[in-house]
Amino acid sequence: LKKEKLNRIKLNIIAMILTLICTSCAPFSKIDPKANENTNLGKNTNPEKTTNLRKNIDLEKNTNPEENTQNFEDEFDDFRSYYENLMGTTDSKLKEIGKKLETQNNKYNIQIDKITKEQLDFLDNFVSHATLENEKMLLKKMIYSSLDYKKENIETLKTILETLKNNHENTNMINSFLYYSALGIQIHLDKHLQSINEELETQSKEDLEMLLELLKFELQLKEMFKKGLKETLEAYRQNTNNIKDNAEALAEHFNKYCQSLDSFKPIY
Q: Which parts of the chain are coiled coil (predicted)?
């Protein structure tokens, strides 16, 4: 029976991904960035309001992080081995992951406050005026943590986005990077954490298993986002394929590696 339920979970996730392959083709101007705001991820998850995802992600493949340090650089990588090695019931696993997410949220708040005081925060220049303040904070959590809160990384990404913004044809690509990828992932992670904190005791076993799979899925997407961003910054610094000096080459590279999750390289 348990195997049958897990198979249903996998089918639901596959259906979600196939749905998003279609929605990823829609023009950004027709999509409300607030669409995810009321999504209930605890019990009635709506696939059509999930972020744009990569098609072929193996949710159950066991891997080890490349690094084993306790700094910000591996805070996503060590999640991978962390949740794969969790012992106990589904709800106990969710509680443990929830605690880890809460710890990271405390880091986010401290580091973002520091970035603001040092006047390194630049994202307000790239988001829509219609973007709510809480959505801006979610964007900052996702992007600055993916940059390890480092000044050099923040300034490099700012330069890249400013270069892309000079050509209005790149507007949709920048919006896709910010809203579909960064904001979409962080919204869902926060909703999952809210479900753990507020609804864990009232959910059925099947709902808890679904929540755990979706949570692991979003954490892997977050790893993919960070990996693609990190590789882009490195390529820019090394001027790979002349992307530092050629705005068109930069746009092509950014479109390939960063603008949407289905264009990211697999993390495995």
A: 226-253
